[in-house]
């Protein structure tokens, strides 16, 4: 397992994925801050109002797309030059290969979440917000990270199956709009892309009650476990092309 994780980290050397990881959160935050700045007469709840604007673009669009890009990138090397033949015949279990990819992707998403939190705090100070920093922010970020792992599980499975780099990202974009529809239909807890919207308090900052929080965690565990099982099972039974 350690060797597999180390191999996945090596892929990041001399890659431009780090630039994308930094740029997309910054773009989403700039758009959200601009919306907040020009609508302060309506948005008067300081930190909470700022969160509604920056998290709308980040959690609803940019973060899911970023996850799709990262997952596609971590499968790109195997899809070229018949590298799957070497990977699947290496003295490493298929389960280790998959878990290593998901583990590294999850750590990268966590780094993105921390970076976004720092941007959010800095932007609030620059905009002159004087109220206390909302304690709910940590919960939004942690739940968003958990939901992001569910999305990463789905996107990784798609990227493992489809050789194209762009197609999984396009599928992820379509899933974002489906997730928005599921959320509006009050079915968000049953779709991974909607779970991100709920977890990060993108469209509603209402605190989840105990039953909603338990259901949120259970559904994420189901998506992660089932999605991982299906991907690992397919890798074990499908010949490399």
From TrEMBL:
PROSITE patterns listed in its UniProt record = PROKAR_LIPOPROTEIN (PS51257)
Q: Sorted alphabetically, which CDD domains does this protein's record hold?
A: ABC-2_lan_permease-like (cd21809)
**Protein name stated in the entry:** Multidrug ABC transporter permease
Pfam families, per database record: ABC2_membrane_4
Q: Which UniProt keywords apply?
A: Membrane, Transmembrane, Transmembrane helix
Highest taxon of source: Bacteria
Q: Which organism is it from?
A: Paenibacillus lentus
Give the transmembrane region(s): 20-38, 50-75, 96-120, 140-158, 165-193, 213-232
């Amino acid at each position: 397992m350690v060797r597999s994780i180390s191999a996945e980290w090596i892929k990041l050397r001399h890659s431009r994925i780090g630039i994308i990881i930094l740029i997309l959160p910054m773009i989403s935050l700039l758009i959200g801050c601009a919306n907040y700045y020009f609508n302060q007469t309506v948005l008067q709840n300081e930190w909470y109002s700022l969160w509604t604007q920056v998290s709308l673009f980040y959690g609803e669009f940019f973060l899911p797309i970023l996850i799709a890009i990262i997952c596609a990138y971590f499968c790109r090397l195997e899809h070229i030059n018949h590298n799957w033949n070497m990977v699947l015949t290496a003295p490493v279990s298929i389960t280790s290969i998959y878990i290593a990819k998901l583990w590294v992707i999850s750590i990268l998403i966590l780094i993105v979440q921390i970076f976004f939190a720092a941007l959010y705090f800095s932007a609030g100070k620059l905009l002159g917000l004087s109220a206390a920093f909302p304690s709910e922010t940590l919960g939004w970020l942690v739940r968003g990270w958990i939901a992001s792992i569910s999305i990463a599980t789905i996107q990784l499975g798609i990227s493992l199956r489809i050789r194209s780099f762009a197609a999984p990202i396009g599928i992820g974009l379509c899933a974002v709009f489906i997730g928005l529809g599921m959320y509006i239909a009050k079915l968000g807890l049953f779709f991974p892309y909607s779970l991100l919207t709920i977890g990060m308090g993108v469209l509603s900052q209402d605190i989840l009650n105990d039953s909603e929080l338990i259901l949120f965690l259970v559904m994420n565990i189901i998506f992660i476990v089932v999605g991982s099982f299906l991907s690992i099972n397919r890798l074990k039974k499908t010949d490399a092309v």
